[in-house]
Amino acid sequence: xxxxxxxxxxxxxxxxxxxxxxxxxxxxxxxxxxxxxxxxxxxxxxxxxxxxxxxxxxxxxxxxxxxxxxxxxxxxxxxxxxxxxxxxxxxxxxxxxxxxxxxxxxxxxxxxxxxxxxxxxxxxxxxxxxxxxxxxxxxxxxxxxxxxxxxxxxxxxxxxxxxxxxxxxxxxxxxxxxxxxxxxxxxxxxxxxxxxxxxxxxxxxxxxxxxxxxxxxxxxxxxxxxxxxxxxxxxxxxxxxxxxxxxxxxxxxxxxxxxxxxxxxxxxxxxxxxxxxxxxxxxxxxxxxxxxxxxxxxxxxxxxxxxxxxxxxxxxxxxxxxxxxxxxxxxxxxxxxxxxxxxxxxxxxxxxxxxxxxxxxxxxxxxxxxxxxxxxxxxxxxxxxxxxxxxxxxxxxxxxxxxxxxxxxxxxxxxxxxxxxxxxxxxxxxxxxxxxxxxxxxxxxxxxxxxxxxxxxxxxxxxxxxxxxxxxxxxxxxxxxxxxxxxxxxxxxxxxxxxxxxxxxx
Length: 506
What we know:
Oligomer: single chain
Largest sheet: 6 strands, mixed
Radius of gyration: 26 Å
Number of helices: 6
């Protein structure tokens, strides 16, 4: 069953183990038939740990923060040679948010010292020698408007304030309280764009740093904390695996510019565009599939510490859909206490894998004690860790549920409302995972799907992956509807030859 689915405060003082694994990627920007296209994705950091906050030093060089030897330094990536060199090596601190200083070859960056002091520094591009630029404020993020004017966000209590610093006359004035981390020059005007988070609203505003004039530009979805700008003035912001475009002049609704199909791209958190408009750098969290695979490999290696560390401290383990078995690392360690290279009993092989958003669904073959068992594990990933694991176990006595689910799919593609509904029980229940009820009964389904079938002539659903276990069919579906395409996952539960329950994963 399918249907078209229609800031936190910046604080650097966190230990490195708390930071999720992130990577910096580079893309080409081209214009084809009046459309902006992104292509040639490459990973330019290729580093275990934190790689983040890219900016373009020039049209051939990317700066970014990168973890090595227990600290975070400033790396330089040369697009021509495809090589990385290092600008800083600060044993007593780490550097973040590197930017080239106007009318200079030097770089500015925020240093977090091991003492907890957080200040903005200037670094010699050749020697890495540094000196403090702002000694009296805890700078979160910054943007150079000119050689002498700096727009920076200052951490005050539990918020960030937008401040303009004029180094020529030594003044600092606060423009607005409660702003986000993203600061960008407007390539079409003498102003900068920033994210405002005041009054529980997320929006882009403009600021002229000389006159102090501000004005609203466009609203943003709640929780958006990063933007960048194309040379034509269009604003881009990330949404999961998608980069979305807004034209601030036309006030049209946001449009998807690019959806990343690559598995390694997960949750895009940062973006930057070169001054010539030909390249984009993005930051993506580690793919949920990679995190889950590390967990599988740790289990098979009998490494209890590595296995447990793939999970969040308050991980929830349950039977499908919402029967909690236990919560937290301590109980997980107790449950898997026999996991060691010498005592391990079972081996796990992933037979099929479905990935949708932050969820990974693995069909697993478990071998041990002279028998083979099939099971499904549904993993949710958040902040680089598995936050929940939900099991579905096989049942040899269950009748084959696939026949009725396939009949339902065929009726759906034919837009046959009677044939479609005939595959469901009268009191069929629809849920969002794990247990949020959406509707109950065929009558509600009829109301929603009759008009949908009638107004969607191109409606089609292809099955990309199907897992059958016990009385359940798990379908990864690729749906076309009114010229749009999207993926979805549905778990169908069959009772007495009819679909009695459907759980959707988003």
